[in-house]
Amino acid sequence: MEEEADIVGKAFVEHYYQLFDNERPSLSTLYQPDSMLTFEGQQILGVDDISSRLQQLPFERCRHVVSTVDTQPSAVPGSILIFVSGSLELPDEEHHLRFSQMFHLVPTAQGNLCVQNDIFRLNYG
Amino acid sequence: MEEEADIVGKAFVEHYYQLFDNERPSLSTLYQPDSMLTFEGQQILGVDDISSRLQQLPFERCRHVVSTVDTQPSAVPGSILIFVSGSLELPDEEHHLRFSQMFHLVPTAQGNLCVQNDIFRLNYG
């Protein structure tokens, strides 16, 4: 299970940032009505508000470069905790912004993994 | 529940780093036989090995300075996800080390909150 969690978790991270950087509206497919996002301290509840918030970020284009991905199986059967560190490249920023983000993926009734918890922070140096 | 999770989560963080910086052996009281720690990519399972690893870190004295604490209730009833950013001050290091850490606190059969999942990373600039 730990190895499976790691494979699934790393595939999720790749998929998530690929969507974020190239097809941001499609991120809504990964959240549920009771999903939670804390973005730089701001708490947002539910797929609709999370999706709106991610659309409204003050940059249209960006690129996430992942440095580390750590995963652990969670106490909920089939669920996975993921911890990411990396940098965010914006077209108008000379310096890259370091970030850390955690995801808690939980299986839905249909058996798909969805983001139940998402916490994002920029790491100010 | 969200507000309660936030109060409990922040109290835990203060307690955890107070023990880490002043009474490191007592951290073992916060973990369980099935707790997981991923420390800079190294996976450690169970309170005994986690406690040994934390004792063997290559510094005797340190001070954690917390910058941000974000909390969310988790899918397991009564459990809390915590995401911390901060810096680690070591006596022999001129520069502080930035870190991020996440905890998943889950209630035991006795009703105490214990660390089920713990992932720690230094943020290299």
TrEMBL record, chains A, B:
Superkingdom per UniProt: Eukaryota
Record keywords: Cytoplasm, Nucleus, Protein transport, Transport
Subcellular location: Cytoplasm; Nucleus; Nucleus envelope
Signal peptide extent: none
GO cellular component, one term: nuclear envelope
GO biological process per UniProt: mRNA transport; protein import into nucleus
UniProt domain NTF2: residue ranges: 8-122
Family matches, as Gene3D superfamilies: 3.10.450.50
Function in brief: Facilitates protein transport into the nucleus. Interacts with various nucleoporins and with Ran-GDP. Could be part of a multicomponent system of cytosolic factors that assemble at the pore complex during nuclear import.
Subunit and interaction comment: Interacts with RAN1.
Name of the protein in its database record: Nuclear transport factor 2B
Organism: Cucurbita moschata
Gene transcribed to yield this protein: LOC111440050
